[in-house]
Sequence to fold (260 residues):
Amino acid sequence: MWKKLFNRPQSNLRNTINTNHINKDAMPKHIAIIMDGNGRWAKKQGLPRTFGHQAGAETLRTIVKLCSQLGVQVLTAYAFSTENWKRPDEEVNFLMRLLSDYLDNEIDELNENQVRIRFIGNVSELADQLQQKIIHAQTVTNDNSGLILNLAVNYGGRLEITKAVQQISDKVRCGEIDSSVITEEIISQHLYTTGLPDPDILIRPGGDYRISNFLLWQLAYTELWFTDICWPDFKAEHLMQAIQNYQQRDRRFGGLKHTK
Ligand code: FPP
Fold:
């Protein structure tokens, strides 16, 4: 089992994750990550882009483990967008294989550590075999009580909202919902993320400062944290920096500054 980081004595030994600057009572409940910069990381080293994605999958393993150890409730990672189909077939196929391998290789360890896997996105467009693995992963981890690992695959924020509008319109048409009582909550309930808290912090490595069609509705009051570090170079220390920075923000949600 992975050890909980806050439950062990602090130490400054090399390779030990230092949680001294993190307030364990003010942890973000939900961390969202755009895992960007894989291609540029590979290119810088004269390697094909796929090597960057492979290294990015390793980073994801590290960050999942760390979030679980820190007691984060939800980690949403953007693995494949509805726009990523525009990439060359070789790269798309590689990403799909990486996801498939991830599910094959990680499921036991994730299960053992109480991680619950969920998927957001239009997974019905993925290959049948991959869909079977996704269903299996969700089913076997469904009763776990630890970190929810929410993988965004074939995900687009605009598509998600469009689908919600279609579903709600259908319900209005058959009299299940009255259009005058469509609330923000009803819309949230028709998104892929239904039942999950909105992200507290969005982390985007790779040096770009945009949202890229990710969680458009859910990010309304999310704190944004950007770094130039490419995702394959993103380490535990960077997650700690992001959390520490998040804990210094004054979240007002449109209200007034919190006065002490
Ligand atoms: C963006 O970097 C990254 C992606 C489109 C894919 C992210 C996927 C992984 C990290 C693989 C791991 C996922 C799982 C679930 C195993 P980019 O290729 O756009 O980088 P660039 O901006 O430098 O070109």
The longest strand covers residues 74-81.
